[in-house]
């Protein structure tokens, strides 16, 4: 790298605001309320500026590496998830293109993951038909029954990973401390239904 190129890189890094978010594809500033992409190879949520998100407007494209995360949120009536073997009250379930379902449990170390029993998932879907409309990889069944809560949502995966971030950020000690559950409750209180 030449000294001129290095100087441009240093200047562009210095010009970036520390509180701003940037597109993970092109590096441009991503405005407040920007869209997200799901990277199917790295299994990660990526920030996307408007031009990059427009490249992935076909939300149902299951073959692409990057999939646009929809904004749909649907509050569901109580869903019987006992057959899925969830050992805790906060979890989300993602259906994959091959019809498998992974369960994710937010924890202080991130999201613990395991494969849910396919037959149990089909039983849950038959008891709650809207779950059949979940887009693979980019939407999930988000469940919160911790501390007597009763929250069931079809939610975009970026919302689900936001819950994981809240748990990681607020967890203290062995039991979570006094901050984690109020923060989770606030997250769910702020969720609003949003059509497709």
Cα-atom Rg, whole angstroms? 19 Å
* Main β sheet profile: 6 strands, antiparallel
Shape: globular
Order of helices and strands: HEEEEHEEEEEHEEHH
Considering the chains and any ligands shown, give keywords for the structure:
196 residues; six-stranded antiparallel beta sheet; globular; alpha+beta; DUF5947; single chain
Explain briefly what this protein structure is.
The protein is α+β, with helices and mostly antiparallel strands and 196 residues long. 27% of the residues lie in helices and 26% in strands.
What does this molecule look like?
The radius of gyration is 19 Å and the shape is globular. It has 5 helices and 11 strands; from the N terminus they run αββββαβββββαββαα. It starts with a helix and ends in a 6-residue tail after the last helix. It has 2 domains: 3-68, no CATH class; 74-190, no CATH class. The chain has helices at 3-15, 50-54, 118-127, 157-170, 180-190, and strands at 21-22, 29-30, 35-39, 44-48, 66-68, 74-75, 90-95, 101-107, 110-115, 139-144, 151-156. It is an alpha+beta fold. The longest helix is centred in the last third of the chain and has 14 residues, at 157-170. β7 (90-95) and β8 form a beta hairpin. α4 packs antiparallel against α5. The chain has a 6-stranded antiparallel β-sheet with strand order 6-11-10-7-8-9, covered by helices on one side.
């Amino acid at each position: 790298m030449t000294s001129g190129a290095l100087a441009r890189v240093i200047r562009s890094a210095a010009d970036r605001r520390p509180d701003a978010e940037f597109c993970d594809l092109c590096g441009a500033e991503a405005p407040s309320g920007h869209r997200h992409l799901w990277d199917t190879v790295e299994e990660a949520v990526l920030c996307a500026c408007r031009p990059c998100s427009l490249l992935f407007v076909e939300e149902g494209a299951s073959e692409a590496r990057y999939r646009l995360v929809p904004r749909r949120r649907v509050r569901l009536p109580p869903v019987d998830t006992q057959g899925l073997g969830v050992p805790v009250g906060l979890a989300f379930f993602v259906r994959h293109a091959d019809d498998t379902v992974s369960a994710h449990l937010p924890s202080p170390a991130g999201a613990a993951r395991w494969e849910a029993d396919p037959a149990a998932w089909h039983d849950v879907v038959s008891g709650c038909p809207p779950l059949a409309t979940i887009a693979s990889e980019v939407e999930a069944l988000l469940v919160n029954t911790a501390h007597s809560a009763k929250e069931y949502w079809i939610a975009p995966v970026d919302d689900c990973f936001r819950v994981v971030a809240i748990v990681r950020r607020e967890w203290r000690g062995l039991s979570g401390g006094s901050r984690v559950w109020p923060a989770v409750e606030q997250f769910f209180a702020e969720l609003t239904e949003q059509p497709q």
